[in-house]
Design a protein that fits this description.
With about 450 residues, the chain is an alpha+beta fold. The chain has 17 helices and 15 strands. It has three domains: about 5-95, GIY-YIG endonuclease (3-Layer(aba) Sandwich), CATH 3.40.1440.10; about 100-200, no CATH class; about 260-435, UvrC, RNAse H endonuclease domain (Nucleotidyltransferase, domain 5), CATH 3.30.420.340. The chain has helices spanning about 35-40, 45-50, 55-60, 75-85, 90-95, 120-125, 125-130, 140-155, 170-175, 190-200, 205-220, 225-240, 245-255, 320-335, 350-365, 405-415, 415-435; strands spanning about 15-20, 25-30, 65-70, 100-105, 115-120, 130-140, 260-270, 275-285, 285, 295, 300, 310, 345-350, 370-375, 380-385.
């Protein structure tokens, strides 16, 4: 077993990409802020809680471990996507279908755009698909990819929305994130070079990109174009010293075991219209907005695996059914095996919501305790109630958290965090619902 011989792999405390293998087959590809810490986390007693049964099965099957060290978390993110695309590992693909992945695309227009798109868009939008020249991914984590693109865009500004030749700089051009294709500040040839540089970066060829930029810088300096040479020098320095603190923080919170993660859920609608659900996350008493998720209620979910069939009542003239909508949100959330499992689930409502959650979790054989926050007529928390009927927790046969408390003790110990999570879920749900109704906030 790999866990017993982990030291022999000599994994560094550096960013990189790791590979779980069985023989020559690659089962899973992942990335890490610290390869050493990340590898150890797979052999924790709480693995099934932290990562889910699919990843636990993968670790049990694996008989070898390999890794590639990178200079930054950003490069690890890019390399991870390239390796997933190349090898299509069973347990990466199993966790999410192609529609759920994220991609970076570059269009084949005269002034190419750089866009973030979901796999679903690529499959369903034929017009968009016909305009794509380069496609990079899949990237498993959308929030993290957006953070990465902020870093990349500061180094290599690109066009995404602005109109070429508009005559005045767009907002992104004013803050240095667009090279100025809108205002005529850059030629087509110069912008084409930026696109080539981006392509190399997303192909994982940072070293080749830096060598090419150094050659260009020397030519510009020789021709006494010192301002342009200085700009390239700044880009080279930025690529060699990528500041990806935001990525380190994001991955660190998601990958560490031992943190007490609370997930709170709420449903919002107006007389059954524009119904949405949300998930808010509190980790060790602090909100983790990078882990928040939105769900547009579809109304009907077909039977899949062990998830029961249900119908959400969200159409005009049909009675509202918040418990059915909650079941839909929970079933879709727990289809994401790549998201860490919570130590506690917080619901907005009462016994009906608790019973709905228990039905989904029991069907999925997921052992996570639940509580519901009951509100008064002013929508203030009146009491917190625990779920009825025991869950078979790995560390005992009673309803408990990962710290071994029973449900009443858990509510007492975590009351402030429960109220915070519930409040955040309500705020987030109302905000998302208003967006759906096109209300300016």
């Amino acid at each position: 077993m790999i866990g017993k011989a982990l030291k022999k792999y000599n994994l560094p405390d550096k960013p990189g990409v790791y590979f779980f293998k069985r023989g020559k087959d690659i089962l899973y590809v992942g990335k890490a802020t610290s390869l050493a810490d990340r590898a150890r986390s797979y052999f924790s007693a709480d693995l099934d809680l932290a990562r889910g049964p699919g990843i636990k099965q993968m670790v049990e099957l694996a008989d070898d471990l390999a890794f590639i060290e990178t200079d930054s978390v950003l490069e690890a993110l890019i390399l991870e996507a390239a390796q997933i695309k190349k090898h299509r590992p069973k347990y990466n693909v199993k966790e999410k279908d192609d529609k759920s992945f994220n991609f970076v695309v570059i269009t084949k227009e005269e002034w190419p755009r750089v866009l973030l798109v979901r796999g679903k868009q690529l499959m369903e939008d034929e017009e968009l698909a016909s305009k794509i020249k380069y496609q990079f991914g899949p990237f498993p984590y959308g929030t993290e990819l957006r953070e990465a693109m902020k870093i990349i865009r500061r180094i290599l500004p690109y066009r995404d929305k602005c109109e070429p030749g508009a005559g005045r700089p767009c907002f992104n051009a004013q803050i240095g994130l667009c090279p100025g294709v809108c205002s005529g500040a850059v030629t087509a040839e110069e912008y084409g070079q930026t696109i080539k540089n981006l392509k190399r970066l997303f192909e994982g060829k940072k070293k080749d990109l830096i060598k090419d930029l150094e050659k260009q810088m020397k030519v510009l300096a020789r021709d006494q174009k010192f301002e342009q040479a200085g700009e390239l020098k700044r880009k080279i320095f930025a690529l060699n010293h990528i500041q990806d603190v935001a990525l380190i923080k994001y991955r660190g919170r998601e990958s560490m075991t031992g943190l007490f993660r609370i997930e709170a859920y709420d449903i919002a609608h107006l007389s059954g219209q524009n119904t949405v659900g949300v998930m808010a996350v509190v980790v060790d008493g602090e909100v983790d907005k990078s882990s928040y998720r939105k769900f547009t209620i579809r109304g009907v979910t077909t039977k899949k695996d062990k998830i029961p069939v249900f119908t959400g009542m969200t159409q005009p003239g049909v009675p509202i059914n918040d418990t059915a909508n909650l079941k839909e949100v929970l079933s879709r959330r727990f289809n994401h095996n790549e998201w860490p499992l919570p130590a506690l689930i917080v619901l907005d409502g009462g016994k009906a919501q608790l019973n709905a959650a228990r039905k989904i979790l029991t069907a999925l054989e997921i052992a996570v305790p639940c509580v519901a926050v009951v509100k008064d007529e002013f929508h203030r928390a009146r009491e917190i109630i625990g779920s009825s009927g025991p869950y078979c927790h790995p560390r005992g046969n009673r309803e408990s958290s990962s710290s071994g408390l029973d449900i009443k003790e858990l509510i007492s110990a975590r009351e402030r965090e429960i109220i915070l999570a519930n409040s955040e879920a309500h705020r987030f749900a109302v905000h998302f619902h208003r967006q759906k109704r096109h209300i300016v906030i």
